[in-house]
Amino acid sequence: MAIFHLRRALTAALFGLGLVGGFSLPSTAQAEQPTNPAPRAGKVQVVVHVIHATEEGNKVDPKLQSLVRYLKPLRYTNYDLLSTHELPLGAKAPANFSIAGDRKVLVDLLERDDKRVRLRVQVVGAKGQKLLDTTLSVPRNGTFIVAGPKYGKGVLVLPLTAKY
Amino acid sequence: MSTETSPLQPRDIQWLRHLDGLAEPHELAALGMRTEDLATELDFFDRLRSHLQPEPTDCLAEAILERLERVDTLSGTLGSLLRPSETPDLVPGVLRRLGLDEPALPIVRGALIDESTFVLGVFQRLGLPAPSATLRNLLSAPEQVDLTEAILETCVPDASRTEIGRAHLAAPDSPELWVGISSELGLPDQATLFPEIPTESPALADTILHKLGLPQAKPLPLGPTDAPDLSADVLRALGFSDEQPKLGPSETPELFTAIASDLGLDISNQAMVARELRAPPVGELADGVLGNLSKADPTTAHVRELLQDTLPSNSSALPRANEPAPLLFEAPANAEPKEAAELRSPFSGTLRRLGPALAMAAAALLSVFWPEIWGTAETQGHFTYELTAANRVEIEELSADSDTIVSVIPSEEDAPTIIFIDMAAEEDEIPSPAVEG
């Protein structure tokens, strides 16, 4: 019977973790969900942080603590969070927003499935020049970073996360 | 779900007015809200629940259902609203709306929906069939199977199933749910009624297979017909062969009755039962399960014998190994064969006997899903990056104007990819934070 106890324990863990949408969650688990759950029904929410990275100082915005270690290749020491954009993307519903330096970021949801999402991301300069035009496939809830547009004495860093 | 009352925001009040028919879509649009976003505004629903005490779920479910019936654009979202895993406290209200019995609601409300549907989905996609056609039919609507099962197996009296199913089958609001119900009821023309819903699209199991890195379209070679060598090894390891006496219904009437009941078979027709149990798919299931049952355990030994009895002749023709099986497990000294009578609830009995297989599947899924369970999430107003291998992106196209150089910075294994824009042309006009304000 020990194996049944193991099964029960694992099953309970699966229930508690709310996996794969086929399980009921106890109400306590529901209460611990984030206040802004990821979008459902075919939508993808792309969260973009606009970060100003410089070499002046050693301050890192507390909200970026878990991210900053992945920014080491950029060799900056100071990271300020300028703004956060949450873009609810649907099919044929691209989103855009402005970032520092009169630039624009356009994000278009091309395709999604259970595992990955295809996005087109464009960064347009103040004069309308195309600074970046990329199409890429991002894992579900995965993050990638666009960096480099100059701003002040540093650059802008934009981590983008596709949540769904 | 928190019972603490939180203030309704102006946006919420507009939603409520919209639900009551007092606010028009253009009024919502003026506030930046879209009607089609209603179903995803779970935060709003949370706040609304707290204001609808003492029976929030009834009122909310009623409001949602009424609203959804009027708004065509939201029809596709009813399925997600009705998923117990996402909105557990909505389900009871929805069930009441459907006229289902009150005593059954606690079963649906809690985490007591049998995990069998999940496991059956996995089994089906792995090429191990469900133990009965009834359960296989349920899997045609994997996203709603838990609710469908709960409704049909715990709430709906047998006599009224068909009536309820037919009444709601025509409802356009929840095609996925009712495809599952119609399948259970054996109603024809599913594809005609809901052509956009593939009847063989167990998305849940597909997701699992994705995570396991297994192919989706082709069943795994787990059955005797697909992998005779493997089957032979398993049987040989267990010491089975066609020379070994087989136990059938006549030899183990009690156990046979229990298993047949669990499989949903009509035991009054033993010929049919025999056919069902001896069908090749069940043989494959038996083959897969055999390796996980303890040979020495007196409880599982009967089941093992019975399953072995169902194997197709090409498998049972394997030579018998009389020596002790190398895969022998130690049985508890005080093991008691008591489960046959107590595990006869719908679906659960057979699956409980498949405990080791379920445990293995659950363990595999835990290990695969763990990184994403604790993956990126939004907490306390800021985004927490929990970066794992899930951050690997595939760049298909990368371009820029000629005066801009774009490069991809190699990163550590689990770090997110960095696309770096080198803006040589803007060197002379770098925007300044001070200028920007």
Protein model, in words:
The complex is a heterodimer of chains A (164) and B (437). With 164 residues, chain A is of the alpha+beta class. Chain A has two domains: 1-34, no CATH class; 44-163, no CATH class. Chain A is 15% helix and 46% strand. Chain A has a four-stranded antiparallel beta sheet with strand order 2-1-8-7, with no helix packed on it. Chain A has a four-stranded antiparallel beta sheet with strand order 3-4-5-6, with no helix packed on it. In chain A, β7 (143-151) and β8 (154-163) form a beta hairpin. The longest helix of chain A has 16 residues, at 2-17. The N and C termini of chain A lie far apart (39 Å). Mean pLDDT of chain A is 76; it is low at 1-41. By secondary structure, chain B is mainly α. Chain B has 24 helices and five strands. Chain B has helices at residues 10-19, 25-30, 42-51, 56-70, 78-82, 90-97, 105-109, 116-125, 133-138, 145-155, 158-169, 175-185, 190-193, 203-212, 228-238, 253-262, 270-278, 280-290, 298-309, 313-316, 339-342, 348-353, 355-373, 433-436, and strands spanning 377-379, 382-384, 394-399, 405-409, 418-422. In chain B, the strands form two sheets. Chain B has a two-stranded antiparallel ribbon. In chain B, β1 and β2 form a beta hairpin. In chain B, α18 packs antiparallel against α19 (298-309). Chain B is globular, with a radius of gyration of 28 Å. Mean pLDDT of chain B is 46; it is low at 1-5, 52-58, 67-88, 94-175, 185-256 and 262-382. At the A-B interface, α1, α2, β1, β6 and β7 of A face α3, α8, α14, α23 and β1 of B.
Could you give a short description of this structure?
Chain A is an alpha+beta fold. Chain A is built from three helices and eight strands, in the order ααβαβββββββ. A four-stranded antiparallel beta sheet of chain A has the order 2-1-8-7, with no helix packed on it.
